[in-house]
Amino acid sequence: MATRTPSGNSKAPARSSSGTGSRSKSTKTAKSAPASPVHDFPLPVRMIRSAWMGIARVVAGAFRKIGRDVHPPYEVRRDGTGLFLVILAMVIASVEWWGLRGVGWYGTFVHSVAGGTFGFMAAFMPPILLVGAVRLFRWPEEHRANNRVGIGLALLTVAGAGIAHVVGGIPALNAPFDELWAAGGVLGALATVPLAGLIKAPGTMVAMIALALLSLMILTATPLKQVPARIREGYDKLMGQAPDEAPAPTRRGVKLDAEEHDQSYLYDELPAPKKPRKKTRLFGKDRDADALDSTEDLAGYTGDVAYDKAVITDDHGLPLAQDPSVDLYDESVEPEYPEPSIRPGVRRPTKAERDMAAIMEQVGLGQEPEADTQAMSAIDLTNFDADDVATTAVPLVPSRPPAAPLPPIPARTEQLQLSGDVTYTLPSSDFLPAGPPSKERSEANDAVVAALTDTLTQFKVDAKVTGFSRGPTVTRYEIELAPGTKVERVTALSKNISYAVASSDVRILSPIPGKSAIGIEIPNADKEIVVLGDVLRSHNARKTDHPMVMGVGKDVEGGFVVANLAKMPHLLVAGATGAGKSSFVNSMITSILMRATPDEVRMVMVDPKRVELTAYEGVPHLITPIITNPKKAAEALQWVVKEMDTRYDDLANFGFKHVDDFNKAVKNGKVVVPEGSKRILKPYPYLLVIVDELADLMMVAPRDVEDSIVRITQLARAAGIHLVLATQRPSVDVVTGLIKANVPSRMAFATSSVTDSRVVLDQPGAEKLLGQGDALFLPMGTSKPMRVQGAWVTESEIHSVVEHVKGQLKAEYRSDVAAEAPKKQIDDDIGDDLELLLQATELVVTTQFGSTSMLQRKLRVGFAKAGRLMDLLESRGVVGPSEGSKARDVLVKPDDLPAVLAAMRGDDSPVDDVVPTAQEAALAENANANHYGTDLVAEDLDGYVQAVDYHDGADDDGSEDAWNLTGR
Ligand SMILES: Nc1ncnc2c1ncn2[C@@H]1O[C@H](COP(=O)(O)OP(=O)(O)OP(=O)(O)O)[C@@H](O)[C@H]1O
């Protein structure tokens, strides 16, 4: 007969139990096998043992099903011992309770042993033994608690026997059986007889009662000081009254040890608000309460939040985890032993909440209710019942309490007074209508969950889809692994998952930041549009009136994302054509128009494509007509540099380092002008410079543009000047290393290649975006980009906002920004070759043939000179890069030749037809009106050391000053 070797058996893999239920029967048997080498016993013993364990498993199974079903790990089960206690309890009960006492050998024997040992306390032994059995069946893994309960029960038995013995007259150990039985038996005699010799019967009784109380305290893990509270609690429960305070935390009906008490929430059967708990610790006060009373929260708001962070928050009511300044989910307080059944997801709103949301909508609170329902969008699939969705709430565990409905908040409380006593009204939020309510789940999501689950099963990966959070464009499905399963097993399935869900745009996040779960982002078959109105009406956009806050869109979890452009402090927006850059820029400008007066934010718009930003022509926030000529744009950037220097000087003059501090001090009347100065101090507006196509500028004057951008981006933050650079060509010649290093915030829409993604984000990812506003947002200081669906604003909405704004105030353009360019010097690298270069340009552009040997022949120059001229032509964007022996591409059309020649000469463009006549008229009108008068800032600065002028000769006329920006 073949006998298995001990080693062979003991080396059976000891898999940890995950309770997934997918385990095979043989595995189960292996797991439940004891560690001892049972096969050493003879067969009959092994058979008996098997039978015993079989019965034990059946009985234990029944006990585990009582009340809440439990599944202790196989390795730690002690069903055999539990069965023994149950049988012992039944045997004693059969004799002491059911009248078999002294009947036959069985009755006599059991009664002699039980009665002789415990006296009449034997009648109380069955329940005591059953308590022990229940603990072993249901919670065998809780060794410490089991030991405590065992000790408590043992002491209780001794105390009971002792009390019985005192009641029975304390018979001696050698007293007849009947006397011992009528008292506390042998145990009672051992416990009391020695004591009675010392402290007599009453003293012994008191000692035994004290011992009984002590055993009860051990059993219930009640420290002495909590006894009164426990008694009151017990009384309240018995009387059916609600306790005054929250009951002490329990774990499966058993009070916790004192030292376990601190972490009791980890075990609560009730929904455990885990993250709010963490926040409570993090912020030192109860944020749950705050969340419930958002009115108070907002009342106390000072607006400074917007100054502190580039991205304010999403609309989960929580600061975004990506913000480095907010360590929201402090992992140090992450539960050590999270209850597997408690999902970190958020529950679905109840029907009542949905009704409330609908009512809120009707009474004009816009999308705020949606913001709250959005926060509940992570869905726990474990309890999901598809039929339930429409009518009743799926019984899920909330990760935080639902926020109370928000009151409507007026965007601005003060009456906006512009310079010249003009009263200004910001556009009403009605100009931006609400979008359709967003979905929390759809059939498409369920289909994907099924597909993912199938894929995991097919490839035998021990993992399951535990929930998902639906965003407007993509849904992030969360996958949790069984212990011992490698993350790579799921990430390696990326192609199979793409195949299963029929989408090539699957993105795997491993792990989801802040969670022990793998995230799989899959595009929604039923995408939703995020309208700008909803974003600007969201809680976080409304809780600050900072004028530079813009609506960005929605994140993957459906939370609204808003950002403060002043904190970016400069932003690069890039993406392939049609990816959604211009829509983003439109949302940005419209956000500013909706929230800021021209006194607070002034803008310079550069739109070389001439079509994207024309809708904003004439808004009073502009300081110059929209610049469409790239050359003028390059000059406008130089003006911005000078403006920055002037602001710096002025701030330094008054002893301020940041324009915000200066503005605050001016508003509070704390700044005094120098004696004799006629200046009336007013806050500086923020200056937002928007370039819709950087590539066009870089083609015309790469060095100048790069210089200006670098200088602005390095210093302008403190002067309140911020750059937004958009490009559809995020290649290294457009977004140079220098520009990249100085523009810290990035918004990447879908790029055409992974190289482009690397240029924008320094990492891949953008090439997998879906276009149409799907973007990766990387605010300054973060390393992981956040996926957002950009906000969308329609042309008619823009039109109505612009009309309102223009109706409030006429644009007052500065004539010196682009129209009066400072005199241009001939670039150093041209040196004495200007004439030759002009001839070469003319030759190459008119013939559209970029050949070095042609230059040699026609200009009668040597090879070296011709090569140098060709290099100069390349650096100025006239010809493309060298392609070996082939002629170079000519990038300038003959029509543009005069402008290119003028740029080389350092003159103004002779063909200045790019500024529309209306704009020129506006310029002329403004120039005639001479709003600015004497340069009072320059007057004040006279005699002070000025900021280093990097553009020699540029301020010869001394006419640029920040003060004039708002007509002061
Ligand atoms: N946030 C958005 N929500 C929904 N659809 C959008 C969004 N952004 C862009 N789209 C869709 O994508 C189209 C192209 O967008 P947009 O014009 O902004 O792209 P672009 O990147 O600026 O392209 P180009 O560089 O050619 O101007 C839009 O007409 C619109 O249909």
Automatic annotation (TrEMBL):
Organism: Paeniglutamicibacter kerguelensis
PROSITE patterns recorded: FTSK
Function: Essential cell division protein that coordinates cell division and chromosome segregation. The N-terminus is involved in assembly of the cell-division machinery. The C-terminus functions as a DNA motor that moves dsDNA in an ATP-dependent manner towards the dif recombination site, which is located within the replication terminus region. Required for activation of the Xer recombinase, allowing activation of chromosome unlinking by recombination.
Localisation per UniProt entry: Cell membrane
Keyword Transmembrane set for record: yes
Composition-biased stretches (Polar residues): 1-10
Low complexity: bias regions: 12-36
Protein name: S-DNA-T family DNA segregation ATPase FtsK/SpoIIIE
Signal peptide: none
PANTHER family per record: DNA TRANSLOCASE FTSK (PTHR22683:SF41), SPORULATION PROTEIN RELATED (PTHR22683)
Pfam families linked: FtsK_4TM, FtsK_alpha, FtsK_gamma, FtsK_SpoIIIE
Bilayer topology annotation: Multi-pass membrane protein
Entry's family note: Belongs to the FtsK/SpoIIIE/SftA family.
Record-listed ATP binding positions: 575-582
InterPro entries for this protein: FtsK/SpoIIIE/SftA, FtsK_4TM, FtsK_alpha, FtsK_dom, Ftsk_gamma, P-loop_NTPase, WH-like_DNA-bd_sf, WH_DNA-bd_sf
